[in-house]
Amino acid sequence: MKHERAILAGGCFWGMQDLIRKLSGVVSTRVGYSGGDVSYATYRHHGSHAEAIEVIFDPEVISYRSLLLFFFRIHDPTTLNRQGNDQGLSYRSAIYYVSEEQKQVALNLITEIEASHIWPASIVTEVAPAGAFWEAEAEHQDYLLRYPGGYTCHYPRAGWVLPEEEEGGSRQTQPL
User: Fold this and answer.
1) Catalytic residue numbers?
2) In terms of Cα–Cα distance, which of 5, 8, 98 is closest to 50?
3) Neighbours of 175 (CB within 10 A)
4) Which residues, including other chains, have CB under 8 Å from residue 60's CB and lie 6 or more apart?
5) Are 93 and 62 in contact (CB under 8 A)?
6) Cross-strand pairs, 97
């Protein structure tokens, strides 16, 4: 069994981790910092890194495309450097691809989503090659499991599906 790796940033990493870990086919998740300029990034010193989540998944159970569809469903990819109450470069929307295939899937999906007009504004999600992923401190890992009432700005948007998904085609998102 071959697992794949995805690195996604969509605002505060706690909420993303809490929702993505529940998807069928997700093997493991960890939160950290990626896409920036500081070595050995930490919560107090992460420079231009985004709060991100590393996802290890089984592509025979959930495709990279389906994972990205869910990613676009649980955060607002149209707000520049912001999710909910969180503002700043750390909270940007980004996909850090680990292969050219992931890059193409991400770019094609963004084009499809833009064409569908499902979001009322243009997508500002950065698509860039994965660099170092600096694991966040232990207190940030699995935060919402330990503090179920803790802050999150992530939620699955009801009814958010691309038109071909509504028709029951092969490109359906994975339900929670």
Assistant:
1) 12
2) 8
3) 9
4) 1, 25
5) no
6) 129
For residue 162, what pLDDT is reported? 79
- CA count, 13 A, side-chain hemisphere, 132: 13
- What distance in Å separates the CA atoms of residue 58 and residue 64, rounded to the nearest whole number? 9
| Average pLDDT by stretches of 10, the chain with 176 residues | 95 95 98 96 93 98 97 95 93 98 98 92 97 95 93 88 56 37
Count other Cβ atoms within 10 Å, centred on residue 1. 7
**Taking a C-beta distance cutoff of 8 angstroms, is the pair 56, 29 a contact?**
yes
- What pLDDT is stored for residue 142 in this prediction? 94
Mapping DSSP onto H, E and C, the string for 90-159 reads HHCEEEEECCHHHHHHHHHHHHHHHHHCCCCCCCCCEEEECCCEEECCHHHCCHHHHCCCCCCCCCCCCC
Beta partners for residue 134, in sequence order: 33
- Give the three-class secondary structure for 160: coil
CB contact burial 91-108 (16+ within 10 A = b; e otherwise): bbbbbbbbeeebbebbee
Residues 6+ apart with CB under 8 A from 11: 51, 75, 82, 83, 84, 86, 91, 93, 153, 154
